Prior knowledge:
The chain is built from 14 helices and no strands.
Amino acid sequence: MLFLLYLSQGLPFGFQATALPVFLREQGISLTVIGFIGALAAPWMLKPLWAPLVDRFWSGRFGKRKSWIIPLQLLLLISILWASTLSPSTDLQYLLIAVFMMNLAAATQDIAVDGLAVDILAERDLGHGNAAQVVGYKTGMVLSGGILVWMSAYTGWSGLFLVMAGVTVLPLIAVLLYRESVSTGRDAAVHNTFPEILLALKSAFTVPGAVPLVVFIATYKLGESMIDVMFKPFLVDSGFPAHLIGLWVGTWGMIASLAGSLAGGFLASRITIVRALFIAFLMRIIPLCGELALTCFQPDAVMVVAVTVGEHLFGGILTTVMFAFMMSRVNREIGATHYTVLAGIEVFGKSPGAWASGILAEIIGYQGLFAGGIILSILVLGLFPFIQQRTSDEHP
């Protein structure tokens, strides 16, 4: 059920980030407009602002999390069906509104589904549960941003969305059949007030050990993001054609990423999550060093593919283990809110590295940028002694 829910949540973002720019450019839409469509994903970045609503309002008749998941899944389905009736050439503004509604429904539902995962997964299950999360979301992105775009040559524009709608129905059926436990959180009959939710959230970020935890979550991918953004331009400048880069990164890389996400879930379920995180972190540095090595000479295709596959494989492992670690540190009384805020810190923390990567590459070159990213990644290892123990406010 979790896999299917996360899969459906990956559909809007995959379509908007990969497929929509292609369709819009085919219709002659300006690059300026296409550049601004990234704003359609704003709900994913802003969702911590309304996450407390998910912990505050719900119906005991339907279940704490199902009260949100079911109507939001229906809203996602309706938005997709609406988009199937619109044409990018004649109904562009309404199409963009429909895509925004898809992202709003999926991002808000993600709060509730994360809360459900926090509620029902014991610590020994976090590895498998977060593998379902990461693999499901990535599969949804690949489906809507790749496979269905290819199929649209045969199904047409409307057919693309109708297939997406059919996929969206599957988790809706699964969650309707699911009987939510009455023992989630402190007491399923208790509706925490907003002051109680905010007080619990404040406590979670002010107890001893909270600051190193936040710093670690915010910086663990800072160096990696600097390298990742500039790796593809580096390949272009090294003389490799775009279609090969797309094959290596978009196909082989994604397959390796999915395999890594599954491996990360297995690793986190076999040993302690902090130990799994440390191992995953060390493994992640290996392909980063490989990317740096490629800048020292003229790389060939075999080297690039090997490094690309390694990058996505170990990156998938680290992402799954990291999300399991974050979930293990959540106060379950405000599970949806607390986890969403941590996830927001993770997103915003790695963003500066991506934003600054181009400027830094212009100043110090690819080699200097990649070396700097590796140094930042190694420095984060120094935070591990401070995150070994749970803070006193955490609820396993």
